[in-house]
Every structure is written in structure tokens, then in C-alpha cells.
Amino acid sequence: MTTTAFKKHQYEFTAHIRDPENNARPDGIEDRRMGIYRELFYNNVEGFISGGFPVLRKIYNDENWHAMVRDFFANHQSKTPYFLEISQEFLDYLQNERTAHKEDPAGLVELAHYEWVELALHVSDESISMDNIDANGDLLTSHPVFSPLAWPLVYEFPVHLMGPDNLPAQAPAQATYLVVYRNRKDQVNFLEINPVTARLIGLLQENEDYNGLDAIEDIAADMKHLDPEVIKQGGLAALRELQQYGIILGTRNSE
After folding, report:
1. Which residues partner with 180 through β-bridges?
2. CA nearest neighbour of 76 among 52, 98, 49
3. pTM here?
4. Are 133 and 253 a contacting pair, CB within 8 Å?
5. Same domain, 170 and 243
6. Among 114, 221, 97, which residue's Cα sits nearest to residue 162?
7. Domain range for residue 55?
8. Which of 10, 69, 94, 252 is the most exposed place for a label (fewest CB within 10 A)?
9. Do 166 and 228 share a domain, yes or no?
10. CATH no. for residue 206?
11. Has residue 179 been placed in a domain?
């Protein structure tokens, strides 16, 4: 067999495995043998996806779930060869390639993203270092330092509450603000926060020269609150709560 013919045979082989409904089995290979490859490859990919998106899997019945995964398997061109990144490829498929189906829940992409974040944090090789961080520093007069394993997120849907028995038909008026984080025991958890705390986190992450009080005063000015002291105390309480969960590691060491 020439190199060109061999490559053609390989393409036919893989095309059939990916989409046997639309690509004929290559000549010279019995269906029993091809069936082993078809089942092995699909089951591996489906297993990683169902494991990475357990809530989505529960929402779909078997027929609709496998139809969606087979469409991904047949048509999505993955950019990574790593099994651990299949979930990221599936998210990309949902965000950019899948057309809406009647069985899709409202908020499908957001829910998938939330589940992907949990997995991404769980397998992240990012580590927490306390170098140049004062764990007991003053959160108001110094710059609070956030864990690299804490991701502030905002969703239109309450993704952390969604499941087979809780599928909102439309997004509620109030967005959902979360911080998904991995603690020192390598457990991935989430903290639901309010829009003001989300704004506080954003200001501190965007402005390296801000201390905690700078960010709180910005918020108080935006809110035009009659008693800025109330905002100050609320902001300090929010910073302390974030530190309690390990989302804030401490403050930047000025030495």
C-alpha cells in the first residue's frame, strides 16, 4: 500500500469511527472488528463528558444525551489531544457550534460553563503561595491578595441551583454572583455573593495600588450612600468573609 493510499485508509477508518451513520466502513475490515473501535472510542469520550458535566447528564434523557454527545464526537474539531481537556472542547462546542434543540434547558451554556469551572479548578496545577503575603495584614489599609484558585463569576441563571427539578424557563431579574474556589484541602466549593461584593472584588483585582478602603470608598461614592460608615463596615465584613474562605489569602507585604 502506498503512503497516499494508507493515509486515505486511515481517514476512512477514523471518519467511520467518528460518524458511522454517514461514513462507510473501510473495505477489508469486518464490522465486528470496527464495532470494537466504534464502541471503545465513543464510550471513552462520552465517559469523560458525563463525568465532567454530571448535572447536564441528569437533565437529558438517554436518547437526547447520546444524540448531543455523538454530534460533538462526529463534528467538533478538537484543538487538544488531552483527555482532561475534553470538557473544555465540549464547552466550546456548546458555545459556538450546537444549534438550539427543544430539549435544551434555558441557560444550557451557562450551566455547562459552571460545571467546567468546577472541573478546571479541580485539576488546575496552579498552587497557592504565601510569599510576600501577610496572612494577618490589615484588609483596609493594605492591598488584599486573592487566591489564584478563586474565580469570581457572574451568570444570568442561578447555575449553582439548577438540576432536573429546578430548570428556570427564563433568567431571573437578578443575576447570580459566585466565587468558585479550591481550598487548601483541594476541595472545590462556591460562595454566593451580592453585586456589591462582586464590585469590591473587581475593583481590588483591577487596581493593584488600591487598599481595601480605597475600593470601599469608590463603592460608597457610586452608591451615594448617606452614611458611608455603613458601607465601610459592610465592605470590611465582606473582605473578612472572603478571607475566612481562603478566597483572600491576606494582604500584600510592603516589605
Report:
1. 151, 190
2. 98
3. 0.89
4. yes
5. yes
6. 114
7. 3-104
8. 10
9. yes
10. 3.90.930.50
11. yes
